[in-house]
Each structure stands twice: as structure tokens, then as C-alpha cells.
Amino acid sequence: MIKNVLLVDDDTEMLHALKGGLKRYQESFAVLLAEDGLKALEILKQKIISLVVTDLKMPNMDGFELLAHIMQYYPDIPVIIITGYSTPEMEHLAREGGAVGYIAKPFLIENLARQILTTLRRESEGGTLHNISSGMFLQLIEMEQKTCTIRLEEKSGGKKGILFFSDGELFDARINNVQGEAAAHEIFSWDAVNLSIQNGCALKENRIQSDLQPLILEAMRRKDEKAPEGRRIKDADEAELVPEGVMEQIESAPETAADRLNKLKAKIEAEIGQQCGLEDLYQDSLWDYRVSQLSKIGAVFRLGEFMLAYIDRGDAHDYILMPGQKTTVVTVDPRCPRDKILRAISN
Amino acid sequence: MQELFQDILNTDGVMGVMLFAANGDVLYKEFPTTDSAAPDQRNWRFLIESLEGIRETDLIFEKGRIYIRKTEMGFLVVLMALYVPIAMVRLNCDILLPSLQPSKPGRKLGRFFKK
């Protein structure tokens, strides 16, 4: 993923000189330019920016104001300060304000480039993944209770988005100037994405008041509504995983079957609520023979394909069986809203 | 006998009822509507075998649903459309079940059910 670095300085000559000097790093990052803080804010609303390099003294909105705004609204974006009026107090103020770097003018472009590259590397310190469905991966993140910032790029359209997780809980999402649940719905509807993971989450405040799974389901529903008739019910899990970086453990874990079970669980809980009585979900070939026998009953009555069975054996829990290569088994509390669960599954 | 099953059979969408003995013999069957009929099946042992250890099951197929309940005599099978409220059928079976017991020795021959 090519990252965007935003350079902010009212000295346009300086800006263009920097842009020219940083051209040799174009395979690592792209450079965007803004002549003051206000123009920088406009760009921040329109693009996913990975890093801001800003001068301090500027008209309209100076570097300190810009830094404060970024820390408040885009705390995931690191800021490097460059200034021609450097004093120890100013550096102290900049670092107190949240700047990750401070460079006094004049400086060598290579020094700035080195700082930029070092800072950008942190974006993917948790690993990168290519060509994966966002929903599938994010459910794993939630299960593993990770605290991280995930930057995603949609494969087909090139749109970029960010998700913030704290202990597996989705705190916020952002695509350009769209934030919160609306952004999450869009991101989760992307079919295949490239993503990078940064350990840690700069957001301290939860801006999304919903569990991850209902959000993913809602995104899937919207996507399905938008899809042409013939393309509906496309399995988002078809995306291929390409391991890279330190994500090997996570990458090898997701299996389509496991992911489907998670989706099914999410679907039941989303439709009925957490108190649905669902206890466990797994695949068990020991039930295969039973399922094949039960399906014969329907054949005798000419009822078509066997969809699922609810079974009460007088045990501590009841079973819902779904035929497949291996039988999918859902164990539920016998007091569960049986019909609702069956409806949720068969829908 | 039909009156025992009347409430179930009167439920909108219920297509038929069968009562099986534990050995697979059909003790009773009723398919009142014209668009449903008892299957032409003579050996139901496979059904009994497939229900081993099951107290109650609700089988959902593409075109219909089968609710099966273990009784003291064998199994009660209710065939119905997908839209039937299963809770209502189950409740009717709860009410019906105490009546579905083998007659005690010495009673009149052919009297299978308690009234």
C-alpha cells in the first residue's frame, strides 16, 4: 500500500523542493502538499494520510493549531514538525503536543526521509495482509482481543480506510471525512482488501456503540442489496490469503469453515440477541450418519433438500444440525427461542 | 381416533400425521388434504433407527417441515408446511401425548389409545 505523506508549509518553494527531493521514495510513499493548516485540514478530510510534516509559522492556521487538531480528530496520524525558528521551548511544546519528530531548518532531505520512513514503518509493524476479505479478518481481531490500528485499501476501487481496535472492540472507523458506524459499514462491505496493522490504538474514546459482528452483518446486507441479482450471496471468504510479515500465525488460522461458523454465530446473535441460548458451534463428522438418515425421511415425504434439524435428546443441551461436508453442530440451551434460532439459521 | 389428532390436523398448514410403533409399524395415519398423501412406504424401520435416542426433533426441508415426538408407543410424526407455527404444534402434542399410551392388558382388543 502506498502511503500518503502530507507536507504543510506556506513557503511554496520549500514545498516543491521537498516534493522533488522525496521523489526517489515514491515507491514507499506519495507526497501531498498544503500551504497552510486550513488547506491541510481539507486534504485530511478527503484522503487517508499516514503522516503529516508541518512547518510551525503559517498564516490562517499555524503548525501548533494543526497539530492540536490532528491530535484531537486524527490521533492515529503522526506529525513531524519542521521549523526555521527552533528553540528548546518550541521543541518541548511540539513534543508535548504530540509531535513524533522535530527537525530544525535547514536540514538534509535524507534526514527527513529517514524520519518519514521510520515513522511509516510503524504503520505495518503488526504485519500486512493482501487480498483478504475485511470482515473475515476483523472477526479474528475481535476474537483475539487485539489493540491495534488497521489501515485497509480496497483492492478494486483503491479506497482507503482505517479501523481502531481496543482490546478487540471497534472504537472507530474512518474513510476520508466519514467516521464511525457509517465508515465501518462501508469498509466491511469491501470484498477484498490489502491491510496493514499497527500495534496500539491512539483513540482513547469509543465512538462506535455497536459490537463488531452486527456491523459486519449490516455491511453484508447493504452490499447484498446493492449487488446485481445474479451476484448476490457471493461468499466474501473466497479471497485468497497471501502471507507477509509477522502475520503468519493469524493468516494460517482462518479457515473457511471456522469463519463460516463465526458468521453463523454472529447472525444468530444479531437477530436474536446475546441471550439467544447459543452455547457452542462446531463441525463434527460423528453426526454425519445421523444427518444422512434424517435426510431420508424428507425424501420419503418428497420434501426436497434437508436443511437443518433441531434435536432434543433429553441432554443438558439441544442440538441443531446442518448438513455439509462435515455436519455443523450448534448446541443450545433447551430453553432457547427455538423457532427464532431455526428461522435465523434457515434464512 | 381421528378426534385425538383433530387439533393438530386443524392447524393451518399441517399436511398429515402418522403414529409409529417402536418396531416401525404404522399405528395410525391421516393426511386430510388432497394435495398431500401418505407416502407409499412399507418399511419404516429406517425412520425408527434414525430417531434412536431422540426425544423430539424438528426437521426442516426445502419444501416442508417434519416434527417428530417420541411417545410411549413409538413416534408421532407431524408433516407440515414451512410456515406453520411450530410452537402451536408442539403444544398440541404436549396435550395429546398422555393419551398416546398402550392400553393396559385385559382391555378390549384393538383399543390402543387412552381417551
Topology (SSEs and partners):
The complex is a heterodimer of chains A (347) and B (115).
Chain A: E1 3-8, H1 12-21, E2 29-34, H2 37-46, E3 51-55, H3 63-73, E4 79-83, H4 88-96, E5 101-104, H5 109-121, E6 127-132, H6 134-143, E7 148-154, E8 160-166, E9 169-175, E10 178-179, H7 180-188, E11 193-199, H8 212-226, H9 248-252, H10 256-272, E12 278-283, H11 288-300, E13 306-312, E14 318-322, E15 328-332, H12 338-346
Parallel strand pairs in A: 1-2, 1-3, 3-4, 4-5
Antiparallel strand pairs in A: 6-11, 7-8, 7-11, 8-9, 9-10, 12-15, 13-14, 14-15
Helix pairs in contact in A: 7-8, 10-12
Chain B: H1 6-10, E1 14-21, E2 26-30, H2 45-50, E3 56-61, E4 65-70, E5 74-80, H3 86-96
Antiparallel strand pairs in B: 1-2, 1-5, 3-4, 4-5
Low-confidence stretches of chain A: 229-255
The average pLDDT value of chain A, as a whole number, equals 81
Count of discrete alpha- or pi-helical segments spanning 4 or more residues of chain B:
3
How far is the N terminus from the C terminus of chain A? Answer: 38 Å
Class of secondary structure makeup of chain A: alpha/beta
Tell me the fraction of residues in β-strands of chain A, as a range.
15-25%
> Helicity level of chain A, as a percent range?
25-40%
- Structural class of chain B, by secondary structure, is alpha+beta
CA radius of gyration of chain B: 14 Å
Kindly, what is the distance between the CA atoms of the first and last residues of chain B, rounded to a whole number of angstroms? 9 Å
Task: Count interface residues per chain for the largest interface.
Answer: A-B, 25 and 24 residues
**Count of beta strands of chain A:** 15
Shape of chain B: globular
Strand runs of chain B, count: 5
Shape of chain A: elongated
User: Would you state the CATH class of chain B?
Assistant: Alpha Beta
The name of the CATH architecture of chain B is 2-Layer Sandwich
Q: Which oligomeric form is depicted?
A: heterodimer
User: If strands are numbered along the chain, what order do they take across the biggest sheet of chain B?
Assistant: 2-1-5-4-3
Stretches of chain B where pLDDT is under 50 for at least 5 consecutive residues are: none
Mean pLDDT of chain B: 81
